[in-house]
Amino acid sequence: MVLELIINGETRHLDIDPRAPLLDVLRGEFRLTGAKAVCGEGFCGACMVLVDGEAVPSCLRPVGLLEGSEIVTIEGLAPVEQPNAVQRALLEYDVVQCGMCFPGMVMTLTSFIDKNPSPSREEVKHALTGNICRCTGYERIVDAVMSLTENDEAATS
Amino acid sequence: MQADAAFSTMIYPRTIAEALDELAEEHAIAVAGSTWVLRAPLRHEPLAPRFVALNKLDGLRRFDVTTDAISIGAMVTHDRLAQDLPEFMCLEALRSAAERAANPGVRRIATIGGNIAAHDFSASDFAAALISLDATVEIAQRSGLRKMLVGDFLAQRKALERPWLVTAIVVPVDPLRASAHERLPMRHAGDYPSAILSASANRQGQWRIGVSAVEHQPKRWRALERALQRQNLAKAEDVARELAGAFSGLNLPGTPGWYRVSVLPVLVRRAVATIEARLAVMT
Amino acid sequence: MNIAFDPASAVMNLPRRDALDKLTGRTRYTVDAIGPDMLHAVIVRSTVASGRIVKLDLSKAQALKGVRAIATYSDAPWLHGIGIADQPLFAHEMIRHHGEPIAAIAADTEAIARAAAAFVEIEVEQVAPLLTMAEALEPSALLVHPRWKDYEVLFAGAPRGGNVAWEAHVNRGDTDSAFARPDVTIVEDCFRVSRQSHVPFEPRCAIASYEDGRYHIQCSTQVPWTVRNITAKVLGIAPSRVRVTVPAVGGGFGLKFDCTIEPVAAILARKTGRTVGLRNSREEEFLTCLCRENAEVQIRSAVTAEGEIVGREATVLMDCGAYGGEQIFLTTMTAHTLGGNYRLGSVKLNSRAVYTNTPPNGAFRACNGVYNTFFLERHTDNICAAIGMDPVAFRKLNVLGDGSLGATGQVFNGDVLKPMLERMEAFRAAVPDKRPAAGKRLYGRAATVGTWFVFVGPSSATVNLNIDGSATLVTSGVEIGQGTMVQAMPQIVSAVLGIDPANVIVKTADTDASGRDVGVGGGRTTVSVGSAAQMAAERVREQILEIASEILQTPPSKLVLAEGRVEIVGLPGSGMSLTEVIQHAESIHGPISGTGNFTGPGTPSLPGCAAGHFIDAIDIPVFAVHDCEVAIDPDTGHVEILSYKVVQDVGRALNPRAVRSQIQGGVTQGIGYALHEQITLGSNGNIEQSGFEQYLLPLAEDVVPVEIVLHEGAPSIGPFGTKGAGEIPIMNVGATVACAVSRAIGRPVTELPLTPPRVLGLLKGADHTAKCSFLYFKELVDL
């Protein structure tokens, strides 16, 4: 079936089984490998993308349901020369370790901060229920996010 | 995945009638949020040959609020439900279920209809909450639109005459009722909980209690409803513990059945306390 | 070569240079490079645990359109292993575990390969599997390896036989007399743990090709030289026929310290003449994970009323799974962990690695140190309760110090553990405890000690000085997320050469370019690769100074390298730029480079104390003291960590911020081990946790910010006095949480993880304590 998908602002046409998960299509057909295939069941968040502005796991979205939707991947979120505020904060706090969870983290956190400019630490952690990190132990990620917020709550480092 | 030109693996019916025609075929399944369906390979099940997408059907996303009832289209997501649900005390169990199930990303795409239609999913938050609120399900069949209490639907969904499609869930609004929802994940948050309990009550002590995750299928806990009507609520946990033996807890590696049954009365105590507090502030 | 420069110049919180690409999704891990322009391979695995292969028919699979080659045992007929070569790449005649590779199929797409796998006809005459060590040690048990006597012994000296893959013994002093003393209290305990799965987000994967008569394997590994050597071994070829390259790796934690799927890709590349990509699915990663092993211990100690440990005996059973693997080596580490930390008058230890028909286990961050510390510290708390002594006071009294004798008779240098305990006491006293946060819940607190080691071993490095004043560091080190290759390494080289760390290029691992290296893991990279890098940089430095000395007419001892210049000491601005020196050097001598190497110096132990050990004494011990407060919900058994403190022996922290990151991450993995992560085996010898639904990793709300004190100054032969910091943070967590929980609930804790059902079971008084099967412990047959 020929499908029309809008990915990072570009309209692409693809003859593909519409049941295919968006994650497989991004990585396999378009070679946009920023979204990672880790759990395949929506628990880990490593495959998060934005669909019509909402952060969702791409492993659970069949492409056949996404015609007409604006899909933004980590590659399209911000140019590598101009990382966004979340990416810059994570850089400043030197949080990254193996890096596999971070594209998904960045998608979730970018969307979250956009909609919640003044969260508490607990709210940030709760927002990460669907983003697992095996390396960092999370706290410094939260520190970095808190540095972006309008809260007085001091970020520890 | 290779596309097969002769056979469409995804169909987009525009009317309920079309949808039912498609679903009458053996190889077709209804796809709402698709979060359950796309995990089939991990369950070692083949992906259904034909997905009948519900996204083009009119009316399945409606959210109608009246003084008597809330009509929720089957395609309404957890997220939208949590946002749009009015802040009536009687609906808190449903809001809580919508807000806490799964995780933020899944809540944006998983739908209430898809959730309760997944008959091999034992840990549905919505199932328990809707039972406790006396909700009814609207099901479209070839013979027409049919309404069933959620509890009855859950018990019969495996055996319903095909084709059928959940179109809406209707939740009565009762200003004299308060509700609460308790779920016990193994970690601080996330899935799947070892036990889920939803309850609602009015000042006359008329209880409705839904239980999920403890057994293979969610169900209504009528024995406890009757017992709580007669008892001093301070003893709710003890009463529940006496009656909990009626449950045969689901045994899974890491979460044995005895544990699920053991914590259920604790969830009763917590839900009862919340409801009592809510009833107290209601005029 | 003693060249004076300030080691403190290597210390800085250098930010990671790979972070931006990782944050923007640009980093290409091996798994990302697997794509449509290569063949795809799938491994056909056994669905039963044990039996004889009576039929293996590949014809239908081979006939499928798009199938290009199938590999089996006949393509790789040699055995490999650690200590003993007992493991084939593919099953041959016998199936020994669920998930064992039987064949591998390369096809045009992964879908075709998977479809073809279903057409492979396998018939196995099943045999009742040995699923537990108890079953395997029964005198009448079938043998997992009937031909064990014929196996090639790679490292001699250990007793082995039947279903015992390996035994390591420690015998120092006379424990019989110690236990017979009338003035001692004897405390005896049994403890038990199940497996832990690493779950690195990038699965094991490889891309292989066959070029100019050599195999080239690009893979997600921690050990490029091991992949090279094992691939060669199973193929029966010279290792120089294999080249291994490694880009950024998406997590390892020890799972990738061994070679498993890489040779399979190599074989298929040769058979097809094409490039072949192979990756484990997440389910395969779980079902065939080289887990931290399940283990059981029986331990007893004889202690005087004053708290002196006059005798300690223990037997540890370690489950290898179907093949010996890392557990054979790890029998060595019992002595230094379970037998470590405290001064012992006499000690007798027996570590037995046992074969079972289950998926082979392997190495996971601090390996058996993690459960041995749990065993030891719970036992220590029980001793304190038995003799009525405060647990911290007992530890301060007994921990190893300067001149103390370890279990194998090595002499320890420096007082480290006691000052660290004192620092922890001060740390605890400096902040109010979190008891109020427990509310109505049960509150508990505990502090524990631990010893691990730095896995020193061969490493080599080359530093090439470039004409623009930058330097290229060539090693076989791999960046798996720990930061060493992008932080400590450039920091070391830049400090020695006096250049900006941004001007130190770090070449990714290529066994054709750099010398042999044991690999990344065991906390060794900073020490071993770093020492080699330091030596290489110092040789470059010598050459620079020699040339500059001639030009500047000043002896090298009066010259210093800083900020890309060679300066005369005390006369800033008087020297010349590094680029000028290099240009001059290259015109006369040619380009400047230096090589370095490193291996463990070898620390003596007492003769006769240790048998069957790969390492008799540890060259660089690493110590830790952890403290934890918990609150337990008595209704549900849920454990909440209220606070967590770490005092870690780092020698010198080269990048303190990065070390703190490792501690936060390691403690979080430890929390998973202590509370959430549970591996169980089904009746089919299969790991029952096949995905993230069943295997619960800690989420953001399950952790707390770890409060950290970096303890510096303990003796270390590592570069600038540093020790490895990445492994040990996980080691004490199970122990500390278990001791705290035990105190909170007033019940013995003998098993991990402390999931809510386990804790609720303990609270309800049901006997959930681990039972030692005294029969098989006491009647271990002498081999």
Q: Given the helix and strand composition of chain C, which structural class is it? A: alpha+beta
Overall average pLDDT of chain B? 95
Radius of gyration of chain C: 27 Å
Number of strands of chain B: 12
Structural class of chain B: alpha+beta
Mean of the pLDDT scores of chain C? 95
C-alpha geometry of chain B: globular
Total count of domains of chain B: 3
**Total of helices of chain B:** 10
Outline the biggest β-sheet of chain C.
8 strands, mixed
Second rung of CATH, namely the architecture of the largest domain in chain B: 2-Layer Sandwich
- What value does the Rg of chain B take, in angstroms? 19 Å
Q: Give the assembly state of these chains.
A: heterotrimer
Uncertain spans of chain C: none
Name of the CATH class of the largest domain in chain B: Alpha Beta
Which two chains form the greatest contact, residue counts included? A-C, 56 and 54 residues
Instruction: Give the strand order, joined by hyphens, for the main sheet of chain B.
Output: 4-5-8-6-7
Note the topology.
The complex is a heterotrimer of chains A (157), B (283) and C (783).
Chain A: E1 2-7, E2 10-15, H1 22-29, E3 48-51, E4 54-57, E5 70-72, H2 74-77, H3 85-92, H4 102-115, H5 121-127, H6 139-146
Parallel strand pairs in A: 1-5
Antiparallel strand pairs in A: 1-2, 3-4, 3-5
Chain B: E1 10-11, H1 16-23, E2 28-31, E3 50-53, E4 63-65, E5 69-73, H2 78-84, H3 92-100, H4 104-107, H5 112-117, H6 125-132, E6 136-141, E7 144-149, H7 150-156, E8 164-172, E9 177-183, E10 196-202, E11 207-212, E12 219-220, H8 222-230, H9 236-243, H10 257-281
Parallel strand pairs in B: 1-3, 2-3
Antiparallel strand pairs in B: 4-5, 5-8, 6-7, 6-8, 9-10, 10-11, 11-12
Helix pairs in contact in B: 2-3, 3-6, 8-9, 9-10
Chain C: H1 19-23, H2 30-33, E1 39-45, E2 51-57, H3 59-63, E3 67-71, E4 84-85, E5 94-95, E6 101-107, H4 110-117, E7 121-126, H5 133-137, E8 152-153, E9 164-172, H6 175-180, E10 184-193, E11 205-211, E12 214-219, H7 224-235, E13 242-246, H8 262-272, E14 276-279, H9 282-287, E15 295-304, E16 309-321, H10 325-330, H11 333-337, E17 347-355, H12 367-387, H13 391-398, H14 417-430, H15 435-438, E18 442-453, E19 459-465, E20 471-474, H16 488-497, E21 504-507, E22 509-510, H17 525-552, E23 559-562, E24 565-568, E25 571-577, H18 578-588, E26 593-598, E27 610-611, E28 621-632, E29 639-651, H19 656-676, E30 707-712, H20 733-745, E31 751-752, H21 756-763, H22 774-778
Parallel strand pairs in C: 1-14, 10-31, 12-13, 16-17, 20-21, 29-30
Antiparallel strand pairs in C: 1-6, 2-5, 2-7, 3-6, 4-8, 9-17, 9-27, 10-15, 11-12, 11-14, 13-22, 15-16, 18-28, 19-20, 19-26, 23-24, 24-25, 28-29
